[in-house]
TrEMBL record:
<dbReference type="Pfam" id="PF09002">
    <property type="entry name" value="Card1_endonuc"/>
</dbReference>
<dbReference type="InterPro" id="IPR015093">
    <property type="entry name" value="Card1_endonucl_dom"/>
</dbReference>
<dbReference type="InterPro" id="IPR011856">
    <property type="entry name" value="tRNA_endonuc-like_dom_sf"/>
</dbReference>
<dbReference type="GO" id="GO:0003676">
    <property type="term" value="F:nucleic acid binding"/>
</dbReference>
<protein>
    <submittedName>
        <fullName>DUF1887 family protein</fullName>
    </submittedName>
</protein>
<dbReference type="InterPro" id="IPR011335">
    <property type="entry name" value="Restrct_endonuc-II-like"/>
</dbReference>
<feature type="domain" description="Card1 endonuclease">
    <location>
        <begin position="267"/>
        <end position="403"/>
    </location>
</feature>
Length: 407
């Protein structure tokens, strides 16, 4: 569909988020074509990140050429000169994708290129239709759906970010059957409360010091944890999947399942929900065009590369073509905590994935529709989703419906 509109040389206006520029370059350049990255002093870093990724990962095109306007992004004469010098000197068909940059840059670049080469291709990436819009003076705009795959690593690299190499994301859920059983039990409010009480009174009180899990050597010395105050249904899950009896040994539970005892504690304390969410996503992935999904994405802070603290973290994320879906997970039912989790995820996902990004919260809230309404007002995002306690058992279908609503 896009072949008639592909060009030899494509001007890309660089904005705060270079993701649309990536999609446009991969979609609209012919084999051997050249991207020209028109940027300002303010967006120079974005141009550098984009150029690096295009040059490394897109073999069909020529080396990206930066065009810096400095601080003169509103100077019509300067923009005209830079574009005119290239168009008059170089052969081939030109195009302009004006998704990024400022409105002033777009107007001046559009007018200049149109005057020199009337048959140039003008386009922008529509975040709502997930399509490239081909502009035309004579007819209605033509919207062409785009299927360009971008990985989670690439979407981070477009912003100069990486995840921690010593703490890479998890691609395969741990004990998904056990997590599924816990999710089903958490559909019952009273059962969920007893599990949370056990985590606080037994697991945390013995395996944590303040807000930090004890060191591995100390965890290895802990006596088995009592399951006496847990309902029979939970005890059965722990017996089946963790070799527990009336007690659970962290060391025995770790064998063949986890790399560290701390991970056993984290799983029991709540990350089981992230593993469950990842498993539910992967169950529907082939039917819904999901080509990558991971959990526990710990993003390194480039300003403090040796810090133990993350710049931020995504609980679970997946990609459909170039569209980022981020899911924040929490076992709490407290309104304020749920709201904070979703707001933070929405902010980070929008920074990385732009207007195309979609965000959801998976939690144990009993009135998810109320929480969703509040967040829609705050974030001005009508496409976010909140999955509450009653959604847990059939989460894969709920996620599939959410994806369908975003097509």
């Amino acid at each position: 569909m896009l072949e008639p509109y592909q060009v030899d040389r494509l001007f890309l206006l660089i904005g705060e988020n270079p993701l649309p520029n990536w999609v446009a370059a991969v979609s609209l350049l012919r084999d051997g074509g050249t991207p020209y990255l028109i940027h300002t002093t303010h967006t120079q870093k974005q141009a550098v990140y984009l150029a690096h990724l295009l040059n490394r990962d897109v073999s069909k095109i020529q080396t990206a050429q930066p065009i810096c306007l400095g601080d003169r992004h509103a100077n019509a004469h300067h923009i005209c000169q830079r574009i005119q010098a290239l168009v008059e000197r170089l052969p081939g068909r030109f195009g302009l994708n004006y998704t990024g940059g400022t409105k002033t840059m777009a107007v001046h670049a559009y007018r200049t290129l149109q005057a020199i080469q009337p048959d140039a291709v003008f386009s922008y990436l529509d975040p709502h239709k997930l399509a490239i819009c081909i502009d035309s003076d004579r007819d209605d705009c033509l919207y062409i759906p785009v299927s360009v795959r971008l990985s989670l690593a690439q979407i981070l690299q477009l912003h100069g970010l990486t995840w921690k190499t010593e703490q890479p994301p998890i691609a395969t859920p741990t004990l998904p059957q056990a997590a599924t059983a816990l999710a089903k039990l958490h559909g019952n409010l009273q059962l969920a409360k007893t599990w949370r009480n056990w985590c606080h009174q037994e697991l945390r009180s013995k395996a944590r010091q303040g807000n930090i899990w004890q060191r591995e050597a100390e965890l290895a010395q802990l006596p088995p944890l009592s399951l006496q105050n847990l309902p029979e249904a939970f005890q059965q899950v722990l017996c089946q999947y963790f070799d527990a009896s009336q007690t659970i040994s962290l060391s025995i539970a770790c064998q063949g399942r986890f790399k560290q005892l701390r991970q056993v504690c984290e799983w029991l304390d709540g990350t089981w929900l992230e593993h469950y969410v990842l498993q539910q996503i992967q169950a529907i992935a082939p039917l819904h065009g999901i080509h990558e999904s991971k959990m526990s994405l710990h993003i390194k802070d480039p300003a403090r590369p040796y810090s133990q603290w993350d710049k931020f973290e995504f609980d679970v994320a997946f990609m459909r073509d170039y569209q980022l879906f981020a899911l924040s997970c929490t076992t709490t039912d407290k309104h304020s905590l749920c709201k904070q989790k979703l707001f933070e995820a929405a902010l980070r996902a929008r920074q990385l994935g732009g207007a195309e990004a979609r965000v959801a919260l998976v939690c144990c809230h009993d009135r998810p529709e109320l929480l969703k309404t509040e967040l829609e007002i705050v974030t001005r995002d009508q496409k976010l989703a909140v999955f509450g306690r009653q959604d847990l058992e059939h989460l894969s279908q709920k996620i599939a419906d959410w994806i369908g609503q975003n097509n």
